[in-house]
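Annex B. Sample input.
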Amino acid sequence: MDFKAIGMGLAFALMWSSAFTSARVIVEYAPPLTALALRFAVSGVIGVALAWALGQRMGLTRQQWTGVIIFGVCQNALYLGLNFVAMQTIEASLAAIIASAMPLLVALAGWLIFGRRVNRLGVLGLVAGIAGVALIMGARLQGGVDVFGLVLCLIGVLSLTVATMAVMGAASGGNVLMIVGLQMLVGSAMLTVPALLLEVWAVTWNWQLAVAFIYTTLVPGLLATWVWFMLVRRIGAVKASTFHFLNPFLGVAVAAVILSERLGPLDILGVAIIAGGILLVQLNKDPQ
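Annex B, continued. Sample output.
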């Protein structure tokens, strides 16, 4: 792994982790599904326009179109849609911790469903990661966390797992920026219907909402996704996923600094265990 790939991975991890904090600000002042559908529409149009200006076209392969649709539905509509709704009642740090379990679920699915070999190091990582999540969930449930919001985040991370397993097919073959823009538009289309049916347009306009919306649209939304696709193309999905072990730390750190969310000793211990478990799982993987 070269220095450019390391820089890309670190940048992606920071941008991805910061999205929970900016999303928490958005849902404080605007209906979540409506705001998210609008964010994806703006990001998608910008992405497609930039791709078109760079000479990229929509003539994707069948495998790429499949990846675009799966990624757009599972990550953008389901994972982020459920998380935006959940963060009306739960903290950004908790949502970030749950989402950080995604690499563990990818490894678990590969082991149980696709029969990929997992040695003792990988099994230890899976057990440690699951134990870390359970530790945090137990502490938060005792502290009175909203169970409905928690369940939405758990369903969301399962959807993110499916999206991650589909990203390699979408990333291969070029037209990366066009693919990023198109999967944003898929997410926007999927969210528009429930937003119109379930939500009332009630927005509290202020600078906090404006800054959070612009940041979420351009940085975690468009730039981070493009960096992730490029990183997967450069070093492969296995090595790229190693950077996810930083997400538990970065997610809670950004929420603590920006939103002043308090973390208990069990939260910190659980985050460390999850990060260690993710790292062990990734080190176990065979690049082939």
